[in-house]
Amino acid sequence: MAENRSAERPWLSAYPPGIPHTIETESLGTVIDLFERSVARFAERPAVSCFGTSLRYREVGAAARAVAAWLADNGYGKGDRVAVMMPNVPACPVTLLGVLAAGCTVVNVNPLYTPRELAAQLNDSGARALFVLENFGHTVEKALPQVPALERIVVAAPGELLGLKGHVVNTVSRRVKRAVPPFGLPPQMTQRFEAVVKAGRALKPPTPTVGPNDLAFLQYTGGTTGVAKAAMLTHANIVANVEQSRVWFGASEDDTDLRVAVTALPLYHIFALTACFLFFFRLGGCCLLIPNPRDIDGFVKTLSKTRFTDFAGVNTLFNALNNHPKIGSVDWSQIRYVVGGGMAVQSAVAARWKAITGQTILEGYGLSETSPVVSVNPLGLKDWTGTIGYPLPSTEVSIRGADGAVLPFGVPGELCVRGPQVMAGYWNRPEETRGATTEDGFFRTGDVAVMTPDGQIRIVDRMKDMILVSGFNVYPNEVEDVLATHPAVVECAVVGAPCEDSGEMVVAHVVLRDESCTADILRAHARAGLTGYKVPRKVVVHDALPKTNVGKVLRRALRDGAA
């Protein structure tokens, strides 16, 4: 008889003292309410910092209300979708809040999309307006002929809202790009962000009738494994996840010590959007925006001269910082916590991070469809556990077999989730929504996991990434974790490739710091920690692995190349 039934919720007895089992959701309101409360309460505190300059809450509030007023004056309101295509620059959070304050739904867009990808997302979402950083205006120009429904384009500069310092930033950026915005965009439908804010300041901010169940975000997902689709995240989903995270970490808006969250992950990604920006906006904290985290030299330089208290990252970011020669110049003494998510944190990366910074990575888990946080390790953890911790308050999880039955502890199956943070469904995809939902209302994550008797969850791998070798399951995460412990390996990714005698074979794609390391050496290393059928049959050396802009390795691209 199965020991692990979702109704038992074994994790509750393992909660740290003082953590409630549930949260009260009725009084949370909307993201607009969160925004207005924080601007009123923390008016003189810094809300965002970028390029060495900060904007206070009242300044962010005034600019966001101006964006909302301009949108309303131009006929945009509840039910309209507005796309935001920006990296982490000050105009991005201001625009996000302004679009929501107008009653519209935000469509987050990756600025590095190709014209084809941009057109597909704008058409799928039905976005009527687009706010874009000028650096990516050329992409919009090329996509426009395929997006007939798009009516207005607002072009922002990197240093927008930062006064004289912003002017300097913009001048340098344009010199590097060797282009004068807004490029070839149609003048009749294009406006500068600064003009929008100026016009909006002279207008009365709108007061849309928006409720908790209205859509706040269309958050596109699935780009690493297949066709992107939009998770419909309501205001209730987002504010619930912020509150779940707040009580889990024991965070309070009454804290007089200013919290500064390093926000290197892009705000168009759900991890940074909720767990960094909105979470710390709720607490009166400051988001240290990193426009280009791939510039590791610049990133480390910023960290070495800036006070910060909280840090969120993904495995590849931790690994890149671990390998930077000047990481020792960074002061980690004021850190409250370091959270890892987005992809599996490898044991070798976590161990080296602890040795360098003295900080334990608290690994968590979430998805776009869950706003995103499902579970996370508790504060005060002495050592990295390799688990994704316990489900947050008001969150139910179960591990299920192919027949939908709940599996016993320790048996791998699909991780399923139910809670106030779970999306309303996929935008315009009712069949996919039904396919991703169990009969009793749990969201099927597509991740293989096991649960311990005390309710901790350990992710095994993505179901779609599993490799079948002669009938045996091979999980890439496990093989990658072993390979990453070899001193010559900078980073690695494992995929399956067709094989005549075994159906599929394991292929390792690696980036090396020591060119004398051979495939045979790596296979011997893997053989010491893995059974024979899990050992990579083929090793491919790369200068760099393909990644999403958030740093997640694109296994699909490697798999397609291998095929």
UniProtKB/TrEMBL annotation:
Listed InterPro entries: AMP-bd_C, AMP-bd_C_sf, AMP-binding_CS, AMP-dep_synth/lig_dom, ANL_N_sf, ATP-dep_AMP-bd_enzyme
PROSITE patterns in UniProt: AMP_BINDING
Domain of life (superkingdom): Bacteria
Residue ranges occupied by any AMP-dependent synthetase/ligase domain in the UniProt entry: 35-427
Membrane disposition: Peripheral membrane protein
EC code: 6.2.1.3
GO cellular component, as recorded: membrane
Keywords for the protein's UniProt record, in alphabetical order: Ligase, Membrane
Cell location: Membrane
Domain AMP-binding enzyme C-terminal as annotated: residue spans: 478-552
Pathway: Lipid metabolism; fatty acid beta-oxidation
GO MF annotation list: long-chain fatty acid-CoA ligase activity
Family: Belongs to the ATP-dependent AMP-binding enzyme family.
Protein name: Long-chain-fatty-acid--CoA ligase
